[in-house]
Amino acid sequence: MEVVRAIADAHYRAGSDAVKSLAYEFFRALDTDGDGRVSLHEFLVLMNQEGHTRLANPYFYRVLDRDGNGFLDFWEVLTLYYIIKSGRPICQCCGILVIDTFFSCVECFNSSEGSHSLCIHCYRAKRSHHNHNGRQQFLDTFTLLQTKKRPTPEHHNIQGRPWEWPPSAQPSWSSITPQGQGSTAIVPTTRMSRWKAALEALEVGLAIGNISSTLCTIL
């Protein structure tokens, strides 16, 4: 979790003043009673209200509560925001939130039905029987990103001929885009009017395949 906290912090600190203002507004929207902190009750209500039911549990709240004081401050909520907006998956086998490397089904990755992801432990133990007509291919997050690289004409193989994808390794998708088109913001609609439009414009920042062509940030 410390790595995830550091990533969220880096996105925030590297962002513009406008982005930082939006992040603060996000925190204020979660803090429904305005006491400067997010209680377990506020957390559970909002998680369920916005459809993040698998995250709506006291255990995950305690994981976010880094200092263990029973409440979430701004920086702890920032980590929650990053986890949701970056699409950190729930393992399809054990049901835990995967906060480090995960494995995704290649054929499901760009499907409208959503990706099928596994944590390292479930993938290694072969607990998943997920397949497509007998075909099964899972790639870890780093390898999946690397498959998006397309060799250019100047890339040649060791015989001096232009490099081409071998038939067995030909990617089965043409592009990778964010899942769904709607915002996954976790604040009530009535409290997000000031920054919803900006948030929707920014949330494509971590979309695999769009990173090199956008200056957006996840926050």
UniProtKB/TrEMBL annotation:
Recorded GO molecular functions are: calcium ion binding
Annotated transmembrane regions: none
Q: Which domain of life is it from?
A: Eukaryota
Keywords from the UniProt entry: Calcium
The entry's protein name is: EF-hand domain-containing protein
Question: Which InterPro entries does UniProt cross-reference here?
Answer: EF-hand-dom_pair, EF_Hand_1_Ca_BS, EF_hand_dom
Domain EF-hand, by residue range, is: 18-53
Q: Which SUPFAM superfamilies match?
A: EF-hand
